[in-house]
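re the bet — no i am not wrong, look at it urself. input seq straight from the record:
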Amino acid sequence: MFDLYYDDEAFKLDAPEELIRDFVEKCASLVPLDGSFSLTFVSPETIKELNRDYRNKDEVTDVLTFALEDDSEFPDFSSFEDAPEKEYGDIFICLERMKENAKTFSVSEREELLRLCLHGLMHLAGNDHKTNDFSTEPMLIRQEEILNVLKDSFMF
């Protein structure tokens, strides 16, 4: 379903592979996503470079999502048994910024890590928001509802 990458093996300490795989697979059914994508944990330098090159923002951010647009020319394979899996795109998460967010918002690093994973998944599924206001943005309200449902299962 998805490929998981770490730019540095040390990132696995803050984002354990088993936790990420379990959480993402559970979220994919709630968002929903029924195809392939990648999730990569990167350094502040890498995410800053991506943010600068693709969003013209020369700054470190917590999560970047690059969603592939649906192509109207893509043939409908839904009736074929060997239909190619839909490709959604790529998510990049900066663990250093995740840790800063956790302190800023007074939440555990685990909770913020999973929030960023879910946030990226929601963008891949076509959701968007204009502001970061958790009380008025439908995407962010839904994100927090999903996190609340999963809170006990993932101990945050």
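see?? The domain at 2-150 is CATH 3.40.390.30 (Collagenase (Catalytic Domain)). told u. also The longest strand covers residues 87-94. so pay up
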